[in-house]
Sequence to fold (333 residues):
Amino acid sequence: MQTRLSRRRMLRISAATAGLALLPAGVRAAVPTVVHWQGRALGAAASLTLNHPNPAEAHRLIERIEAEIRRLERIFSLYLPDSEIAVLNRDGAIDSPSRELVELLYACRAYWEITDGMFDPTVQPLWETYRRHFASRASDAGALERSVAAALPNVGFDGLLVDRNRIAFARPGMGLTLNGIAQGSITDRIVDMIKAAGLTSCLADMGECRALGTAADGSAWRVGIDDPLKSGEVAKIIEIRDRAVATSSPLGFRFEDSGRYNHLLDPLSGLSAESYSSVTVVGRCAEEADALSTAFSLMGPEQAREVVMKMRKIDVFFIDFQGKITEFQTEKS
Fold:
C-alpha cells in the first residue's frame, strides 16, 4: 500500500470531492468589474473573486495578496524547511517568533480549551508515525499500534510553551502542525486586506472559504456541501453573506486505500476519525470554521452539540457514511 501524499481538496472549485463546491448564484450578465484569481496557498489550490470598480487596482491588490500569502507561508508551512514552524519542529524552540505565529497559537489554545482537547495541533508526532509506517509499506498492525502508543506521550497542547519572546516544546519528541487552522487564518487575513482596500464584495478561498458581502448581482454567495460518497453530487446548498465555511473529511487525505487511517487524528487515542464522511462548519470567520470542523470530526454528536451551544452563531452539518445529514445550529448573535 502506498502513502497518499497529496491532500484531496475540499472544494469542488478545485475539482475535488467530499467537501464544498462554489455554485453559480443563477445566470448572470457579464460584469466587467468581477476579477478572478487562481493560485496556491500552503500547497493547495486557492482562488479569489473580487468585485472591484477598477480592474487595474484590483490586479495591484492581488499582487499584494500574493506577496502576503508567500510571507505567511514562511511562517506556517510545514513544507518550507526554513519556515518558523519547521524550525520549531526541528529545534524544539524558536526565539523572537512572529506576531502572527504567536497570535495563532493563542487562538489554538482557545479552541483546544473549548473542544476539551479535541482540537490539538500537537498531533504532528502521530502524523509522522503513520507516514513512516505506510511509507515503509509495512503490514504489521501490531507494530503500528505500538508506534502510535509510543508517540502519544508526545502529544498535548499543554506541552507547548508560548509567549511573545519564545515558543518551545516542554519535552523532546513533540511537533506542531497548523494544517487544521492555518488555511482559515490566511483566508481571514486576505479578507481583512480586501476590506482595508475599501471593497465590500469578495469570495476568498485559501483552502477554506469566506465571503465578504454579496455576489456581484446582490445575491448571497452560494456554497454547496458535496456528497462525500457520490462524486460530483451536492448534498446541501448554503447561502452565505459575511460568513465562512470549512469542511473536514477523513476522505480528504488517507494514508492507505481503505481510509481507516487518515489525517484527522484523535489526540487522546491516536486513532483516525471514522464517525462522519464529512463535517462542515459555517462560522463568523474562516479560522473558527477551520478549527471547529477539525475538532467536530473527532467528536460524538452530543459532545459536538455541547460545544456548538457554547459558541456564537455557527452552523454545523455532519454527513455520515450512509449520506444522512445532521445539522446543529445556535442562534446567538
User: Anything to note?
Assistant: The chain has a mean pLDDT of 87. The first strand starts at residue 20 and ends at 23. DSSP finds eight helices and 14 strands in the chain.
